[in-house]
Amino acid sequence: MTMPPFARILLAVRALWELCRYDLAAATSGFRVLHRKLQGLACGSRSSHSGLEIVIPRAVAAVSSFYWRPVLCLQRSVVTARLLRQYGIEAQVVIGCRSAPFASHAWVEVNGCVINDSSGYQRKLRVLERF
User: Fold this and answer.
1) What is the pLDDT of residues 21-63, one digit of tens each?
2) SS3 call for 86
3) Which of 17, 31, 55, 64 could be cross-linked to 71 through a Cys-Cys bond (beta carbons 3.0 to 4.6 Å apart)?
4) Which long-range contacts (CB under 8 A, 24 or more apart) does 77-81 make?
């Protein structure tokens, strides 16, 4: 999908804003409040743009590389899901783990497909939460 330059800049600014919002909310309210707010976030009206499931995760990844703090998988996934929902795309944050050796990870799924990471996590990790 090709987006006009202004739309790409606007999406990058929105992604940066969402990263900042996540940091502020996590620092002041904690994960429980973030979790509850994302669960209650309804999807906006469906956008006429197809391919946003690819463009939005790429924009979040690009902005994350310039963010002043390390952006971990949970933050990246929550921000991606919030942006997708704002554009009318049903997205779920999935948190999975493995006990031996311990590993955990968060990713975003749209219609059961991982869109911001490797699909191998679906097979390797047991799902703990979807929201």
Assistant:
1) 999 999 999 988 888 888 877 777 665 557 899 999 999 999 9
2) helix
3) 64
4) 77/106, 77/107, 77/108, 77/116, 78/22, 78/34, 78/38, 78/106, 79/15, 79/18, 79/19, 79/22, 80/56, 80/108, 80/115, 80/116, 81/38, 81/108
Measured distance CA(38)–CA(31) in Å, rounded:
10
- Do the Cβ atoms of 80 and 19 come closer than 8 Å? no
Residue 56, Cβ neighbours under 10 Å: how many?
A: 27
